[in-house]
């Protein structure tokens, strides 16, 4: 095949809107605001399963490989495209970090203003840097995500701005394309699909995506949905909002998820579970993914694997089944956390003898 002869409409990759246009609420007039998000790697676990004696076909969908480093880009391309179509001049969101980074980048691309409300001191530095460098107006509030979202919801009633949190229906429409991609990449739907849950938009979006793909006869079965919350921020597990959510995984430090109902529906319709994992379990999984598979995700993302390990130990899975973990964000967003779990690198003289001595200890 000669260059340029590829007939697959997905290549060269033009972003999720063009790849999955038939499944999305677009008109001919919708301007496409894209950074070519999507088409992220699906990576099979080789070393974790071996070293831990896990008898599963375990896969990672690395959505940290999106343009701004998280799955939010899938929703933001559509949300910003529709905002532009409706003549909006500004977008606003509350965020634990990734939504603000993505909104800032896509607003920059669209040439409109972005205003983001974030919980002071509780977002990873990389995410704050992204919002700033893309020119967003960043407002830090002395409160948590839930409080920021309440403020934002009230503000959009009063001012001409488009809300781009996941309660904006276009966000979830875009995010459901991750489910399509997984099925396209695997060739079938996984038996189990595990992902972190914060505001619960993503689990809602994935479940919708899988159902639509089955209706379209692209897959013949639906996965069992497994959502994992951090133990200190697990309202869906305890069945009521958490007033002061706490976890090292700041991305999912949320006490009152906006898509509560969607998450419960995904769990119940698929026959799945929503469980909690401790910060220790999250950090253990985070290190395993990085040190054994070479994938650098952020702590919140690792809660999917943490949950799978927990359920595996409880003999939850049938042996040999396909289990897919979505890794929602890039580890580069939060390098500070690495220094909490790794040893400081050693410092030595600039002298070959000294370095050789160390090398002998390593090899
Ligand atoms: N993983 C990461 C890396 C996230 O940033 C988020 C949410 C989630 C998982 C959970 O997804 O909210 O759809 O259940 N981050 C939002 C934000 C809240 O503001 O960036 P969810």
Summarize the structure.
With about 375 residues, the chain is of the alpha/beta class.
Please outline the helices and strands:
Blueprint: H1 16-19, E1 42-44, H2 47-52, E2 57-62, H3 72-85, E3 90-94, H4 98-110, E4 113-119, H5 125-133, E5 137-141, H6 145-158, E6 162-163, H7 169-175, H8 177-186, E7 192-196, H9 201-215, E8 224-230, H10 235-238, H11 260-270, E9 273-277, H12 279-293, H13 299-313, E10 322-327, H14 336-341, H15 352-362
Parallel strand pairs: 2-10, 3-4, 3-6, 4-5, 7-8, 7-10, 8-9
Antiparallel strand pairs: 1-2
What characteristics describe this protein?
single chain; 363 residues; alpha/beta; six-stranded mixed beta sheet; four-stranded parallel beta sheet; binds ligand F0G
